[in-house]
Specification:
The complex is a heterodimer of chains A (about 300) and B (about 280).
Chain A: H1 11-15, H2 32-61, H3 65-74, H4 76-109, H5 115-123, H6 130-141, H7 148-153, H8 162-172, H9 176-188, H10 191-198, H11 203-232, H12 235-241, H13 251-260, H14 264-303
Helix pairs in contact in A: 2-14, 3-14, 4-8, 4-9, 4-11, 4-13, 6-8, 6-12, 8-12, 9-11, 10-11, 11-14, 13-14
Chain B: H1 2-7, H2 17-44, H3 48-56, H4 58-91, H5 97-103, H6 106-109, H7 112-122, H8 141-166, H9 169-177, H10 182-211, H11 214-220, H12 230-239, H13 243-277
Helix pairs in contact in B: 2-13, 3-13, 4-8, 4-10, 7-8, 7-11, 8-10, 8-11, 9-10, 10-13, 12-13
Classes of the chains: A mainly alpha (about 300), B mainly alpha (about 280).
């Protein structure tokens, strides 16, 4: 880098002496009014489409006071919806975690035929509409589906029951962990694991002591995103749940029912819990992003 | 053993290839491939005429028009404003910038049903924003557009942002010394660099919008022929026990999604090459 360092107090700095500017070079930055206009447009857009809806959730939830809010959340149907949402996430996230690690290990550490095809297939669930994700499980496990008769004979229920909800959630959150791990593990290469093997580590020792610590932040990142999506999934779960109150209702479905019954305050109260989850997710995500950035930088340094 | 012998290109001292790939393939097949193939196999049991009727009835055609039109418009709006947001976040300093940057991902984290009821409330005729607008938003096709804008926000911002961060400032300096105005530099130097990423973001937002269900159904009003999106039509047919009809529409949507996925993949390859070349 042999850039010509211009003096820091150029023409723009004189106009706004209080704040140091992000870009000290006058020739490659915009006039102050352009800057202010662009910032204004960006903030107005984000406010209209993102911030106002977010604030509205909490405002509507507390509109009728604490009592209504609390009652809406501790009411038995709401509690069972919360329980089912937690259950679905508690099953689907670990499953996709194990898958993500397996797929990333094979893809990032080995060179094999069909790798690109596998990568594309892993991303497939992201491009399938949630409604279709639900539908395909109806086709397999529904009454008229492939295993419908067999399931009925054995008195088992998948569709309109908890297993269907879990399956739909697994499908929707399928790629999250794998997608985070694969690029990082590819960038890290194989040397550390090979060294561990040469030094006599067993396969599992190498995995627990070398591979896993190396990817822990990316792993957590994937898990958090996976969890947020698992708890919030609506379309896919809606198709397979059957909407039986107190039994197969997840939180998003419970919100829909309350909303359609014009119990707006209650609907927004349950919604505010999910909005809170979203905010916590974003906070953790931001925190981990910094860690992963640091880690990627250190991997980059080592590679140079 | 079988997998490593037939697929591995190079011998490796690392263990676990068979176990890892074997499990990954099994899981992928059980969760994704087999159920997805069920949709295609189901349509093979239909006659061509029945399939064609199911996917081209006037009500279905109206839903395609709405879904594609609103998705395209929403992705286009996001392309314009997403570029501005990314630009502002990369180039300028302003209060609460880090918080705002983090909140751009809100649509990824906020459940679609929550977004749906919140948007419906604020864009209703007596809502915070709706009361100031001269036209109805909630319960009209415009509402569908608003919901799709919401869910598409992060795609353009997050694909353009890293590319914009990597733009070599020396190019801009060169343009400035050669006498280009700031606008000329943007249009002729910066825009061509970020264009592949911008198109990728647009395509991602568009693809996501096509399948979106949760946030739309609350705000759309769901009137047949007017504000009914295709995913809702699939659910309606399912509820009427017209599983074959629902599957036929789903297969049309799936094929379109896969084509878009291929398009996005090649866009990304192009973007990588472009970035590497600069």
């Amino acid at each position: 880098m042999n850039t010509i360092a211009l003096p820091k107090n150029g023409a723009d700095t004189a106009a706004a002496p209080a704040r140091p500017l992000a870009t000290p070079r006058a020739a490659t930055s915009e006039a102050p009014w352009v800057r202010r206009l662009l910032i204004g447009v960006a903030l107005a857009f984000l406010t209209l489409f993102l911030f106002v809806p977010l604030v509205a959730v909490f405002f509507e939830a507390f509109k009728k006071g604490w009592d209504v809010y609390l009652a809406a959340i501790i009411e038995p149907d709401a509690r069972s919806a919360i329980g089912l949402t937690l259950t679905a996430a508690a099953i689907s996230v670990p499953l996709n975690l194990v898958f993500g690690i397996s797929a990333a290990w094979a893809i990032a550490k080995f060179d094999f035929r069909g790798k690109n095809l596998l990568l594309t297939l892993i991303d497939l669930p992201f491009s399938v509409s949630p409604v279709i994700a639900g539908l395909i499980y109806v086709l397999v496990f529904g009454l008229q589906g492939w295993f419908g008769g067999w399931l009925q004979d054995h008195d088992l229920k998948v569709i309109f029951a908890v297993p269907g909800i879990v399956l739909a959630t697994v499908f929707i959150t399928f790629p999250f962990v794998a997608r985070e791990l694969i690029p990082l593990m590819q960038a890290q290469g194989q040397e550390q694991e090979e060294a561990a093997r040469v030094l006599g580590a067993s396969g599992w020792q190498m995995f627990w002591r070398v591979t896993l610590p190396n990817v822990k932040w990316a792993l957590l990142y994937g898990v958090i995103l996976c969890n947020a999506r698992a708890m919030g999934e609506f379309g896919a779960v809606s198709v397979v749940s059957g909407h039986i109150r107190g039994q197969t209702n997840t939180m998003p479905l419970h919100i829909e029912i309350l909303y359609n019954e014009y119990q707006f305050a209650a609907a927004f109260a349950v919604a505010s819990l999910l909005a809170l989850l979203a905010l916590v997710t974003l906070g953790l995500k931001h925190f981990i992003e910094q860690r992963v950035k640091d880690q990627k930088r250190s991997v980059g340094d080592r590679a140079e | 053993m079988l997998l490593s012998r037939s697929l591995l290109k190079r011998h490796s001292v690392l263990p676990g290839f068979d176990l890892a790939l074997g499990f990954a393939l099994l899981y992928l097949s059980l969760i994704v491939l087999v159920p997805l193939s069920a949709a295609f196999l189901k349509t093979f049991t239909m006659t061509w005429a029945a399939f064609w009727d199911a996917v081209s009835s006037p009500r279905v055609l109206a839903s395609y028009r709405l879904t594609f039109g609103a998705s395209f418009a929403a992705a286009a709006l996001n392309a314009v404003f997403g570029l501005i947001v990314a630009w502002v976040l990369v180039r300028y300093d302003f209060p609460f910038k880090r918080l705002i940057d983090a909140l751009v991902d809100l649509p990824f984290a906020l459940p679609t049903a929550v977004a749906g009821i919140a948007l419906t409330a604020i864009y209703a005729e007596n809502g915070w924003i709706g009361q100031w607008l001269p036209f109805k938003v909630s319960f009209t096709p415009v509402g569908v557009f608003v919901a799709l804008v919401f869910i598409g926000v992060p795609f353009v911002v997050r694909t353009v942002q890293p590319v914009l961060e990597d733009v070599n400032r020396e190019l801009e300096e060169a343009a400035a010394t050669l006498g280009a105005s700031r606008w000329q530099t943007f249009a002729k130097v910066i825009l061509p660099i970020v264009l592949p990423a911008l198109l990728t973001g647009f395509a991602l937002a568009f693809a996501r919008a096509l399948g979106e269900y949760g946030s739309v159904i609350f705000i759309a009003g769901n009137m047949p022929m007017v504000s009914e999106i295709t995913p809702l039509l699939i659910i309606t047919k399912l509820e009427q026990y017209d599983i074959a009809g629902a599957t036929a529409i789903a297969v049309v949507m799936l094929v379109i999604s896969f084509v878009l996925l291929l398009l996005i993949n090649s866009l990304q390859t192009w973007a990588r090459k472009r970035q590497g070349g600069v």
